[in-house]
Amino acid sequence: LCRRKQDEVQVLEDTIRQRSEQQKKAGVELDATCHICLKTKFADGVGHICNYCNIRCCARCGGKVTLRSNKVRQT
């Protein structure tokens, strides 16, 4: 079960990386755009940044994850 989840995370990270490379080739600025769906555009300072991978995402794509230490982190 844990291995399957790790594989899913790896696939998602690869997909995000590929999409961002495609957008950079097209000349689209990613600073004010959700790095996961690449659709939602942010005003300055809006959007959630993952504490682990530093990816900026919108509320639809991001979620909160409960860690073992019972702290909630935004991803």
Itemize the secondary structure elements and their pairings.
Elements: H1 2-26, E1 48-49, E2 56-57, E3 64-66, E4 72-74
Antiparallel strand pairs: 1-2, 3-4
Protein name: RIM zinc finger domain-containing protein
GO molecular function, one term: small GTPase binding
InterPro entries: Rim-like, RIM_Znf, Znf_FYVE_PHD, Znf_RING/FYVE/PHD
Concise overview:
Pfam families: RIM2a_ZnF. By secondary structure, this protein is of the alpha+beta class. The chain has one helix spanning 2-26; strands spanning 48-49, 56-57, 64-66, 72-74.
Order of strands, main sheet, comes to: 1-2
Q: Biggest β-sheet: count, sense, barrel?
A: 2 strands, antiparallel
Distance between the termini: 21 Å
- Mean pLDDT score: 73
Q: Strand content of the residues, in percent? A: 5-15%
Query: How many helical stretches?
Result: 1
Report low-confidence residues grouped into runs of 5 or more. none
Order of helices and strands: HEEEE
Task: Tell me the Rg in angstroms.
Answer: 14 Å
Let me know the number of strands. 4
Oligomer: single chain
Q: Helical percent range?
A: 25-40%
Tertiary shape: globular
Describe the structure.
Residues 34-72 form the RIM zinc finger domain. GO terms for molecular function: small GTPase binding; transmembrane transporter binding. The protein has one helix at 2-26, and strands at residues 48-49, 56-57, 64-66, 72-74. By secondary structure, the protein is of the alpha+beta class. The protein has a two-stranded antiparallel sheet. The protein has a two-stranded antiparallel ribbon with strand order 3-4.
